[in-house]
Design brief:
Number of strands: 12
Strand order of the largest sheet: 5-3-4-2-1-6
Largest sheet: 6 strands, mixed
Strand content: 15-25%
Helix content: 25-40%
Structural class: alpha+beta
Radius of gyration: 23 Å
């Protein structure tokens, strides 16, 4: 038997060996990153919404005492320059971390945790463009109280980017004006449901929508939606239409088209009624009927995956 060729074996310590090692590490990190990165947190659904489609909102993060945090940290949808984090002064020194960033790796929850920890030692005025590798680092649940929910403030613009009493330079002012012009009116429906209140209304121009981030298992939720569709219950009442759903961060997000002339609060009662119907469908264990299977296949064909 001939000897095994060493032609393709990288020389230890060589550039190729280093590149291969880095590639293996990156692949291992990607494989380890959960397909549902914010699982285990009561704020999971809102975190997904802030990361994917909410334009302007903030909430102070409930940091664990074990973090030894000296500064409060505000979670924001997006920061100036799409930075991962920044530190600024006002009445007190505060950290800001972003859900939407310019550069993102395979584990957004760990990156968010790293950004939070960065704010505790950075100097006022410092900005973090992107989080470096977080392999083996703290998880978000190691930094933030996983049982707490976000006390969100939804903003009509991005004026909160500029600290009170600060006059922005012309470039920052122009960026702020451009961002404000692009924002769409958005509201979080204040629901009192047994499952989740991460239902977000947006006026997109020609019509309004509700995007409802659901915490249930994707497959179970799809079956429940199919049962409702076959029974004629997949809607939020008059003036609404089920538009489809998309998958992101391991969760399914049903989307409804709405009559944009109605105020967001007018959809609260219909949403609560829909949630009750959906929960009943979720606990059903009966086999799908022919109509329900047809509905399931049709709903799946209209489903989009974001990430």
């Amino acid at each position: 038997m001939g000897k095994k060729s060493k032609r393709n074996s990288p020389k230890p310590g060589g550039n190729r060996a280093q590149r291969l090692a880095e590639r293996r590490a990156a692949l291992e990190q990607a494989a380890q990153a959960s397909t549902r990165p914010f699982a285990g947190s009561a704020m999971e659904c809102d975190l997904v919404a802030l990361r994917e489609f909410v334009p302007s909102a903030t909430a102070q993060l409930p940091l664990l005492s074990s973090v030894g945090a000296d500064r409060p940290v505000v979670l924001a949808t997006v920061l100036p320059g799409a930075a991962a984090a920044l530190v600024r002064t006002g009445d007190e020194v505060s950290g800001y971390v972003a859900a939407q960033v310019q550069f993102s790796g395979p584990d957004p929850a760990a990156e968010l945790a790293a950004a939070v920890l960065w704010t505790q030692s950075a100097e006022p005025g410092d900005s973090l463009p992107a989080v470096a590798s977080v392999a083996g680092g703290p998880r978000l649940t190691d930094v933030v109280d996983s049982a707490a929910r976000l006390d969100l403030t939804v903003h009509a613009d991005f004026d909160w980017w500029i600290p009170e009493g600060v006059e922005p330079d012309p470039q920052v002012a122009a960026t702020l004006e451009q961002a404000n012009q692009a924002i769409m009116p958005t509201a979080r429906l204040e629901l009192d449901t047994k499952s989740t209140d991460a239902a977000w209304w947006v006026d997109a121009g020609e019509k309004a929508h509700i995007r409802w981030v659901r915490p249930e298992d994707e497959d179970a939720l799809m079956l429940a939606l199919a049962r409702l569709h076959a029974a004629g219950g997949l809607h939020l009442g008059e003036g609404s239409r089920f538009a489809g759903s998309f998958r992101t961060h391991g969760l399914l997000v049903p989307v409804f088209d709405l009559d944009r002339e109605r105020h967001p609060d007018e959809w609260i009662a219909p949403a609560v009624e829909f949630d009750a119907r959906l929960l009943d469908a979720l606990v059903s264990t009966s086999p799908l009927t022919v109509d329900e299977r047809r509905s399931r296949d049709g709903l799946r064909s209209r489903q989009v995956t974001l990430r």
